[in-house]
Specification:
By secondary structure, the protein is mainly alpha-helical. It is built from eight helices and no strands.
Length: 185
């Protein structure tokens, strides 16, 4: 399971929905989270149509329960994905046709082999060195997109550059990284 990152923008959107019934805020929240929730549900074993329907149900639940959201208890993403998890379990119980896929996130992971750890460290060092050779503006975009897991629109706002520039820098950086790391591929 992906670790939910705090998203103050999403928290603000939920607050706008809760206090004003702001439809534009709901639209923004829907566009931000519906694809992520659907992907989560697909990874949990639901087929595409069921995942799509359940993702919509999740966001409708967010609309209805927005006043119950407490940012002191959880981030917006954690709250939304908890709703998704609970609705997935409820749907499986209702239908009794679908076998609930085990949630391996709670199970302890076996320790990786020593050679795998060493290979990952070497690969990580090579990637870090390759990123260090990039121009600063490309390295910044790579870090925000891949290490901070931020969407392009957030990067655009954070760096104060147009969305097209964000995408161009990512494309150029990825092309350079591919050339530098060809041996690893």
């Amino acid at each position: 399971m992906t670790v939910a990152q705090p998203d103050p923008g999403a928290e603000w959107l939920i607050h706008a929905i809760a206090t004003r019934g702001d439809r534009a805020a709901f639209t923004s929240l829907f566009l931000l989270f519906a694809p992520r929730v659907k992907a989560y549900l697909l990874r949990r074993g639901l087929d595409g149509a069921v995942a799509e329907e359940l993702a919509q149900e999740v966001l409708l639940t967010v609309w209805r329960k927005a006043p119950q959201f407490d940012p002191a208890r959880a981030s917006a993403a954690a709250w939304i994905f908890t709703i998704a998890r609970n609705l997935r379990i409820d749907a499986a119980r209702r239908t009794r046709l679908a076998q609930l896929a085990p949630d391996h996130a709670d199970e302890p992971q076996p320790a990786p082999a020593a050679d795998a750890i060493l290979a990952a460290e070497v690969r990580g060092a090579r990637i870090g060195a390759a990123i260090a050779t990039l121009p600063a503006e490309q390295a910044d975009v790579i870090r925000l997109a891949f290490f901070d897991d931020r969407p392009h629109a957030d990067i655009e706002r954070a760096l104060g550059i147009p969305l097209g520039t964000v995408k161009s820098r990512l494309r150029l950086a990825m092309s350079r990284l591919r050339k530098l790391l060809e041996d690893d591929l």
